[in-house]
Amino acid sequence: MNQVRIAINGQALDVPAGISVAAAIARLQWPFRRSPRGQARAAFCGMGVCFECRVRIDGIAQQRACMVPVREGMQVMTDE
Amino acid sequence: MSEHYDIVIVGAGPAGMAAAEAALARGARVAWLDAQATAGGQVWRKDAKYGWPHRAEHMLAHLLNHPNAMWMPQTQVIAAEPNALLLQNERQALSITYSALILATGARELLLPFPGWTLPGVTGAGGLQALAKQGWPLGGRRVVIAGSGPLLLAAAATAKRHGAHVLGIYEQASKAAVHGFARKLWRWPGKALQAAALRCQLAGIAYRYGSIVARAVGSDALQLIEVEGPHGIERIECEQLAVGYGLVPNVELAQMLGCAMKQEAAHPYVSVDDSQRTSIANVYAAGELCGIGGRDCAWLEGRIAGLAATGAGIEAPLLWQRRHVRNFAAALREHFKLDPGIHALADPDTLICRCEDVPLQALQGFDDARSAKLATRCGMGACQGRICGTALAELGRFPRSGQRPPLFPARLSTLGDVPSPSDTEGLF
């Protein structure tokens, strides 16, 4: 399977092409974001409904990581 | 300037695909769109490792290459008005007009609150299946599947295929109820075969009846769950818990268009006639949003809608086939009816609104969604009440409030195209 290189919070990561940003973040076992009270959260519904997995992708905030496939050179920032 | 199409189809699952196929065969110019990056919907979601199921792949090859079909991936409807939709994709906002609109927006999972349900590692059952197909790492991870319905078997099979160590499947329905359902399956031989194939793939994995996940425990991630079953409480260490209590129709766009609704228990679905017409002229609906009926039902209804929207007659066999599969769905509902104990799992401090961190106790004393929202922010977050509003309706607290534009959180540049919304509550 082809690999693409992305960066999550500045850390380079080689992942299979075609996976979602959510699946890439899960490889590092980081929370995706913090709730208003500071709880760690991660992908929950897996299909773009719950918005728990939203992260910043290439400078654009509030993207649902479960709906965006990885692209070569992508910069992902979780809400940590 | 808006692009015009004969038929616009919202949703690219089985219903949307069947509608597109039927409309294209009649010579229509079709735009079909989906919020996801690939077509197939949830049931035929493309697996990053294994691709599409064969039937879907074959059909999609035809649809994606058709000269009269405009496929619009990663595209969401933000607002709707008679004969026009405002859309947003990754790059831009765009407006399209149509002669007929077919809604095939499918369903989402019924996700219900219990202590610990916000921990990383807890997902929906269909949710884990979707994530596994996206490449979510499951190799060697201990996974428990729970909730209700045949979807649990499919989720377990997908998790196993992706290398998960599936510790068990915990079905809330009683043994008598599930066996009663199995005894009726002969009437739907295709379903019986499907069930048998799944049980084969899952040989060696425990399947427990009358069991409910009451609590998930962990600090910053899931470590342990407590399952209440016929023989008491079982504590299970695991890294992933996938729990889903069935499906709920996605009716928000239909509601915004003003389509008449019906009610199945706590949840609305779109009312349609024999030709899949809604109460609004030139707007059709097909599949799960017309009441949960499953993949085969969605396919048949999509085909009927595609034919009707292009002025073709509907063959009688299509109509009785649809009745037959709708009867299957009714049997499912009857036998996998939720145990009332599931409605009482949340503690006073369990968060109901996951976006705004609103606990159950903050909602005491409210009997409608709007006043609860204004006082507590419940339902005001990014999911726009899709999770908490649906859960509160299921729990018998109060029905979800109506949908206002935008249908999904939208960029300001997109909202500049919304024609003077009368009420901007919920815009952000």
From TrEMBL, chain A:
Query: Which Gene3D superfamilies does this one have?
Result: 2Fe-2S iron-sulphur cluster binding domain, sarcosine oxidase, alpha subunit, N-terminal domain
Q: What is this protein called?
A: (2Fe-2S)-binding protein
Instruction: Give the transmembrane ranges.
Output: none
What's a Pfam family this protein contains? Fer2_4
Specify whether Oxidoreductase is a keyword of the entry. Answer: yes
Task: Please verify whether the record's keywords include Oxidoreductase.
Answer: yes
Q: Which UniProt keywords apply?
A: Oxidoreductase
InterPro entries with a match to the protein in the record: 2Fe-2S-bd_N, 2Fe-2S_ferredoxin-like_sf, 2Fe-2S_ferredoxin-type
Instruction: Tell me where in this chain the 2Fe-2S ferredoxin-type domain is found.
Output: 2-80
UniProtKB/TrEMBL annotation, chain B:
- Residue segments, region Disordered: 409-428
Domain FAD/NAD(P)-binding, first and last residues per copy: 5-290
Q: Which Pfam family would be a valid example here?
A: Pyr_redox_2
Q: Which UniProt keywords apply?
A: Oxidoreductase
- Keyword Oxidoreductase in annotation: yes
- Keyword Oxidoreductase in the entry? The reply is yes
> Could you identify this protein by its name?
Oxidoreductase
Organism in which the protein naturally occurs: Dyella flagellata
